[in-house]
Design a protein that fits this description.
Two copies of one chain form a homodimer. Chain A is of the alpha/beta class and 402 residues long. The first copy, chain A, is built from 17 helices and 17 strands. The first copy, chain A, folds into two domains: 274 residues, Queuine tRNA-ribosyltransferase-like (TIM Barrel); 114 residues, no CATH class. In chain A, the strands form four sheets. In chain A, strands 4-15-14-13-12-11-7-6-5 form a nine-stranded parallel sheet. The radius of gyration of chain A is 21 Å and the shape is globular.
Chain lengths: 402, 402
Amino acid sequence: MGIQFEIIARDGGSAARAGLLQTAHGAVETPAFMPVGTAASVKGMGQGQLEEMGAQIILANTYHVYLRPGHEIVRELGGLHGFMAWPGAILTDSGGFQVMSLKELSRVTEDGVWFRSHLDGSSHYLSPERAVEIQLALGADILMTLDDCVEYPASEESLRRAVKLTSCWAHRSKQFFQERLGDSPHSSLFGIIQGGTDRGLRRESAEEIMEAGFDGYALGGLSVGEPKALSYDTAESTLALLPTGCPRYLMGVGTPEDLAEGVARGADLFDCVMPTRNARNACVFTSEGRLVIKNARYARDAGPLDPACRCAVCRRYSRAYIRHLFVAREMLAAMLATYHNLWFYLDTMREIRQAIVSGKFQDWLARMRARGPRIEIGWREERLKGRSPSRDVCYRDFGRNL
Amino acid sequence: MGIQFEIIARDGGSAARAGLLQTAHGAVETPAFMPVGTAASVKGMGQGQLEEMGAQIILANTYHVYLRPGHEIVRELGGLHGFMAWPGAILTDSGGFQVMSLKELSRVTEDGVWFRSHLDGSSHYLSPERAVEIQLALGADILMTLDDCVEYPASEESLRRAVKLTSCWAHRSKQFFQERLGDSPHSSLFGIIQGGTDRGLRRESAEEIMEAGFDGYALGGLSVGEPKALSYDTAESTLALLPTGCPRYLMGVGTPEDLAEGVARGADLFDCVMPTRNARNACVFTSEGRLVIKNARYARDAGPLDPACRCAVCRRYSRAYIRHLFVAREMLAAMLATYHNLWFYLDTMREIRQAIVSGKFQDWLARMRARGPRIEIGWREERLKGRSPSRDVCYRDFGRNL
């Protein structure tokens, strides 16, 4: 087995747990957030900076790396770890979500998916076996099975078809992975549960995926446009069905509040492009709310992005300077905002873990909920004036990265 | 006096010298290269990284910072040092070169320059006094006088007019600076010598500028398109006229080889956008020559950018990875190439200084010259095939930054 998962502490009032996920590339303290390195790079970050901020595991997108530079080149250069010069753990998605997002560029068959590259229109084929093969070439610590991910809303029929296909592909993935396991004894394979927001279908999917048996289980097909309450309910009821001894991964989620709610429902791993993509759009997460740092109100603000933050950016730079960098379209703008946002996410997870370990997670959660959703600072006032200055900037990024 | 300049060692066979320039923001070991932070940011670099690579002084462009965010905001936030959170020395140019480059957007009068912002077309006026005032607001350690910079080739008449105007403005700048000196006892003012490649005019300009008397002297109007030999000759004859006890600044120069030739002719300070701008265009300086890292030949190259380099990028990342980042248009591409190129420039200057101090500069120079111009690796072969794959990328960036 590639990974070992140990639960260190459990919260008394919820399904939250603190764990330790041992991989061939170091330990991952869970709950953990995985910065997204779409094309083998977390946009705007050097690997040294990711280490510095305490990232223990990152995610790379199989679809993107497969197309460019190609998994064979990456294999030659020592897998993603060698290629990227990243010593920590790596999880690769299966490419399924990206292929599904291409829609008119892809065609799903019983056997696999035909798709055209968004880069050059070239034709490619991804089967469950091929997805595992590519991810093994990439040398990931955690591989994901190819799944059929459906958008919200979806007809029951298409949800049911996706669940069936995902189950079938999960069994094929598992079998292929086991045949190849000798080659990559350090890798683990996670199964993905689909079923949209249909509780019955989720149960069906969970049972079929668990039947195949995996090192960990992921909830796919959430954060695809469904109402938040429904998303939380689905996560809660589905996570409750999964073996407690395995790591559970809530894919593509979400805001810092979503992460905390996911933890409360028993999830251990998260990924989302929100901290990195929002950073590039000048939207910064802080303990006081999100702020759109490009806003003119920060032009003379000598304070840090977040007065409560101890990250290298907040210890050095002012809001006024970072605002200037965004206005002047300097690369450093995105670099600093990305660093801070990732730190904020990672630090939130460290805080949550510490709260669970010390038996204070219920207090932490109550405080967070009492504070209410942290929308942008000043957003309420702007709305009172009939304006919605930056909502689209901050809210358009729900869901996973294509 | 704001700065103190001390000569530590002289080369026996040339005008080269190693010095120590003391500023209110630390010592600068000369000869020194100043990374260019056009809009109060060295593109793609954090200030911590500049410290890490040993930069002791950086340059900021008055024109750009004046237009955005505005010098009053910068003054409020503690000058450029406070605004950028940069603890080292800062030299600001006068804005003259940028204004002259705008051509159809500017109009030069006896009194000063009217120009339109390249950002929004708004009208602005820059006089010698105003240029000093703005630079004092920016809190620079070294200020430059407003000069009239002419392109190459230029008529004798326009060169002569530029020399006269530059001298007149230098006197006005000096007088204004002295009146204000009480406010900024830590600042120093450098005069700029013009005259194109006309030896007589250069002498005339040098004499008039020295008559006004400055803390240091700069050669402007070079690296503006003139042949390299003519540029070297002009620098040599003009630098020989300047007081040996003052720092001498060769503006806008150049390639690493140009820097060494400038040092041999007695220059102490240099700035150029070449290392940073070329980096963003995938052109990397190495001890073996320049390489265009986007080239397909590096797709599987597991070696560092420069096997002889000890920078953080070369110690961690491969050519193959950096090439991938450029092809995938990842921000990290420019970040890593910029870091390496700046390190290469700074390290070349450290090497030169060490050679001067230990009496080996003539050997160093002879080795460098024997090696010949370091064009791109593989460039010769490509040219034999009748192609010129990347000449424009690597060579289009002579001269100073607009």
